[in-house]
Amino acid sequence: MKKFSMWFVAAAFLCTCAPHLLWAQSMEMTSAKLYIQQNDWDKAIQWLQEALKKKPENAEAHFLLAQGYGMRGKLADMVAEFAAVQQYDKKNKYTKDLASYRQKYFAESFNTGVKAFNEQNFDMAADKFATAAMLDPSQAASFQNLAISYRQIERDLSTDVPCEGCAAEHEWDAVAVLCRDKATGAATKFCCCPEAKEQLEAAIVKTHETLIKMQPDSLTNYLALSDYYKMKNQMEKSTTLLAEANQKFPNNAKVLGEMAIAYDYMGKSEEAFQTYEQALANKPDDKDLRFNYGRLFLLRAEAAGKKEPLDHAAVAVAYGSAIEQFSKVLAAEPEDFDSNYNIGVSHLKIGEDFDKQIRELDE
């Protein structure tokens, strides 16, 4: 009887002085942890969700639920739980663990994306790089590879190759920019969703714009988006972006050269000439700039040759200027076939125009 009484007193003391030791953990949390010990994450997730219904500020429940979602490949849900942990973990108990899990899944997604890209599985590559970007938005490489993957997919969608291996029903996930199997939610081929073709352009532009914001001092990012605009024949957008780049990187020959090309495509020949001259003043030995400048003189000569009445002097001057520019290219690279060819054509055209002048005089 004495032993029982002492035990009862001790129990009463425990309940009075430290009740949290007995009742701090809910039945839902206890059940979840038991299932975690048994590696039954599906049931553990169910109990953790129930625990959070009763106590949404439970940082431990959010952390364990994040683990469960990670184990089940639901990485977007995992990231959402990471955010909840950071919100409620006032003592930063889980900070190191969160960083460790984030890095683990980031590395897995990124490396899988690289492997898929090298195997030309661009659909999977885009999915994995997008996931990597979500897991660690500070890593520019994820966005760079994502933009390239999107552009490869867009190129493939522009062909008439039939889309094979699509399940019965698919749905377009506009938020994630993915085509999903409607039954399982798994990412599948972009070509299985007709919306992909029209929505990829916006995703590509957004990804390039994100890179520009992340790395404002990187000229490469400006040029990449400008190149995409040119490819889509959106020259006004291209020149606007290049003008912005020119303010940030004044007198950069590459920027000026790209601007000149865009002006050329837009039919703004005078702006193109001025921009090439500015670019060559900063980089006179650039063979590509010099070649494109010479090609512009060829176009000017052809246009002059079509005018009525024919301005023979303008034709001769334009072809002569073209020869001058292509000759400078050959001085640096004597075997350049296109420059040699264009010089030959220019001499031929000058001769033809001279013959026209003789015939006009005879008449």
Describe it for me?
The protein is 74% helix and 3% strand. The chain is mostly helical and 363 residues long. The chain has a 3-stranded antiparallel β-sheet with strand order 1-2-3, with helices on one face. β2 and β3 (187-188) form a beta hairpin. α4 packs antiparallel against α5 (59-71) and α8 (122-135) runs antiparallel to α9. It starts with a helix and ends with a helix. Residues 1-23 have low confidence and may be disordered.
- Average pLDDT, rounded to a whole number, is 89
Taken from the alpha-carbon principal axes, the silhouette is elongated
**Which value, in Å, is the CA radius of gyration?**
33 Å
- Secondary-structure element order, N to C: HHHHHHHHHEEEHHHHHHHH
CATH fold name of one domain: Methane Monooxygenase Hydroxylase, Chain G, domain 1
Count the helices. How many? 17
Q: Main beta sheet, described?
A: 3 strands, antiparallel
- Poorly predicted sequence stretches spanning 5 or more consecutive residues: 1-23
Beta-strand portion reads under 5%
